[in-house]
């Protein structure tokens, strides 16, 4: 609802685009947050309220640019509308004025605005006249309901800021990036066949994907002209259950891995399953063979054993537009950089980059380190850490900056259906904003050179498996919190335990050594006295981590089995409803299972040799 002459709509639900007005003193547009009818008085020479006088100049460059609403009094409910009461509606041809026109989103002083002010003035005079007549006929003034106090501009800015997490992930050669913000109309979505709630009680795993798509506005000139957009930069962000820390795992694009079968929803609404592939590059999990982000989602789950809650995807424009919106990001070079591929030229030292130069920085690899994608990941992590610090410090310090950042972010954003509206995104961001910057750790999935192809890498399982286990167990990589975690892990399950004779469980092998299910059942029956344990064969899918599924009324049985097997808290999965008296728990032995009686626990220390940096470290420079 337009605020001109009709009161302010929806309390605080005002379109930000409607609040930008031209300031003749500065020659630029300013954000006006004062509620309708409560702003400061009109400057001298503007005409008196209700006069209807309007000066218009082509292009909206001069003339009456004061867009504060004219004082309008409401009709009493008993007064019928007059014949020209329709002038309170928006004039014909002005219906799109509130949307930001392409290329010139701040022009708001055209003919439509002049007509709106004039009609508002006439409506004010008629309404005032009617009220005067009504007042004299009744012999006293008409009582009006006192309006509710409106939030001040400063308070409104705080409301907006409170709904935005200071987490933004931006990474290069495709520009993976994320900003939690509003503006529904800018957000694109993909149905991946999974719709998780925006807010959950447990840990959150967010998949951030940067594509190398060369199509679309602003994406030409970066290599392969017709690239369909692969998963060129991928970061798996794990936010802990208590929201005290976060771990961001960068997954190399050239990692050789397996891509599972992927159900997709086509543009016409039909369903299609894209066949999986074994031993291919990770980045082909998106774009290749018409794969959508859901395919990358499933590939990462298979690789890490972590269940993903949501994804966010962006292209090259994300880096350029967002860095422009925040007035640049500081980066550091330990030496002179001249990369002919990315066109980045920097002298040794600190620099503030934005736009094309920022994109060049996160795409650079040939002039740093060994010239590999792993070196580019380090550049991206440095850039991303600096961007998060910039956003945390002052990007949301004013409504104007908040508006610019929100526009840049949401226009570049594609998400899953679980967070595809402004309300869901704001709830999601508010839930995660508690994580402190010094407790955000970036790490790279450990890899080795592929002996069969020097252009690709393979997983370093000796380091990657314990790293993935740490994240699955919700253990932080941030320094200084290991002792607290060990204290919390002492209470790994329910305190009350059931007798061995009452423990009823079906055991399946979902990735352990051959014969693991029968071996475990023999051990449970003969060593622990759990006669109600059964070998249920092979699990329908392979799991990276062992999992115990149980119902609320089986918590005591789960506590006993957890103690016997040495299961971490992350292995426990409780259902919502109680189970029948003879329904067994389900124990699925994952790839982390070695032998019954050997604890299936995750390390609490980051494995040696795993590259990692803290987001609050300001002394990282590209070498």
* Strand line-up across the major sheet: 5-18-13-6-7-8-19-27
Shape field: globular
Report the sheet-strand fraction: 15-25%
CATH superfamily of the largest domain: LCP protein
The low-confidence parts are 1-18, 34-143, 148-182, 218-225, 483-487, 489-494
Instruction: Indicate the CATH topology of the largest domain.
Output: Aminopeptidase
Largest sheet: 8 strands, mixed
Rg result: 30 Å
CATH architecture of the largest domain: 3-Layer(aba) Sandwich
In the CATH scheme, the class of the largest domain would be: Alpha Beta
Please identify the structural class as seen in this structure: alpha/beta
Give the number of DSSP strands: 27
Mean pLDDT: 74
Give the helix proportion (percent range): 25-40%
Q: Terminal Cα separation, in Å?
A: 54 Å
SS summary, helix count: 12
Counting structural domains, the number is: 3
Task: Describe the protein's architecture and organization.
With 623 residues, the chain is of the alpha/beta class. It has 12 helices and 27 strands. It has 3 domains: 16-150, no CATH class; 168-477, LCP protein (Aminopeptidase, 3-Layer(aba) Sandwich); 500-589, Alpha-Beta Plaits (2-Layer Sandwich), CATH 3.30.70. It has an 8-stranded mixed β-sheet, sandwiched between helices. The longest helix is centred in the N-terminal third of the chain and has 28 residues, at 111-138. The two termini are 54 Å apart. Residues 1-18, 34-143, 148-182, 218-225, 483-487 and 489-494 have low confidence and may be disordered.
């Amino acid at each position: 609802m337009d605020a001109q002459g009709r009161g302010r709509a929806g309390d605080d639900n005002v379109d930000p685009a409607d609040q930008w007005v031209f300031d003749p003193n500065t020659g630029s547009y300013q954000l006006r947050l004062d509620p309708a009818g409560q702003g400061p008085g009109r400057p001298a020479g503007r005409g008196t309220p209700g006069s209807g006088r309007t000066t218009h100049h082509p292009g909206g460059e001069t003339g009456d640019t004061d867009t504060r609403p004219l004082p309008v009094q409401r009709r009493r409910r008993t007064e019928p509308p007059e014949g020209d009461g329709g002038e309170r509606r928006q004039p014909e041809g002005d219906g799109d004025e509130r949307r930001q026109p392409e290329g010139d989103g701040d022009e708001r002083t055209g003919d439509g605005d002049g007509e709106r002010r004039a009609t508002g003035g006439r409506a004010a005079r008629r309404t005032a006249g009617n009220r005067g007549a009504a007042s004299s006929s009744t012999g006293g003034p008409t009582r009006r309901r006192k309006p509710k106090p409106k939030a001040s501009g400063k308070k409104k800015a705080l409301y907006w800021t409170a709904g935005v997490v200071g987490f933004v992930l931006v990474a290069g050669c495709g520009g993976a990036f994320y900003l939690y913000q509003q503006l529904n109309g800018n957000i694109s979505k993909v149905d991946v066949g999974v719709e998780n709630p925006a807010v959950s009680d447990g840990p959150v795993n967010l998949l951030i994907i940067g594509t190398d798509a060369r199509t679309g506005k602003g994406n030409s000139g970066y290599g392969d002209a017709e690239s369909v957009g692969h998963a060129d930069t991928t970061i798996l962000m794990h936010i802990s259950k208590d929201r005290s820390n976060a771990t961001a795992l960068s997954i190399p694009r050239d990692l050789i891995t397996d891509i599972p079968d992927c159900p997709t929803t086509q543009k016409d609404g039909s369903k299609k399953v894209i066949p999986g592939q074994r031993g291919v590059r990770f980045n082909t999990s998106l774009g290749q063979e018409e794969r959508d982000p859901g395919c990358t989602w499933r590939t990462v789950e298979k690789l890490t054993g972590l269940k993903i809650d949501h994804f966010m995807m962006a292209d090259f424009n994300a880096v350029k537009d967002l860095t422009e919106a925040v007035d640049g990001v500081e980066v550091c070079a330990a030496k002179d950089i001249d990369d002919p591929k990315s066109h980045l030229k920097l002298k040794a030292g600190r620099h503030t980059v934005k736009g094309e130069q920022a994109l060049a920085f996160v795409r650079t690899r040939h002039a740093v380190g060994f010239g590999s994608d792993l070196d580019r990941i380090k550049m991206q992590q440095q850039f991303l850490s600096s961007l998060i610090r910039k956003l945390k410090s002052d990007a949301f310090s004013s409504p104007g900056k908040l508006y610019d950042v929100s526009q840049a972010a949401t226009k570049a954003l594609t998400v899953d259906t679980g967070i595809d509206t402004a309300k869901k995104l704001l709830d999601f961001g508010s839930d995660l904003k508690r994580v402190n910057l010094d407790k955000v750790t970036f790490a790279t999935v450990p890899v080795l050179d592929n002996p069969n192809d020097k252009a690709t890498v393979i997983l370093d399982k000796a380091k990657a498996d314990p790293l993935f286990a740490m994240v699955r167990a919700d253990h932080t990589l941030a320094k200084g919190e290991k002792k607290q975690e060990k204290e919390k892990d002492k209470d790994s399950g329910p305190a009350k335990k059931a007798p061995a004779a009452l423990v009823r469980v079906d055991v399946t092998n979902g990735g352990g050594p051959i014969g693991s299910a029968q071996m475990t059942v023999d051990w449970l029956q003969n060593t622990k006295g759990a006669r109600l344990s059964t070998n249920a064969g092979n699990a329908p899918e392979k799991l990276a981590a062992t999992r115990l599924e149980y119902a609320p009324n089986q918590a005591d049985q789960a506590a006993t089995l957890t103690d016997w097997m040495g299961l971490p808290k992350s292995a426990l999965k409780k259902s919502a409803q109680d189970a029948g008296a003879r329904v067994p728990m389900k124990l699925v032995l994952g790839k982390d299972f070695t032998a019954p009686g050997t604890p299936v626990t995750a390390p609490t220390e980051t494995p040696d040799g795993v590259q990692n940096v803290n987001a609050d470290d300001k002394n990282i420079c590209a070498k």
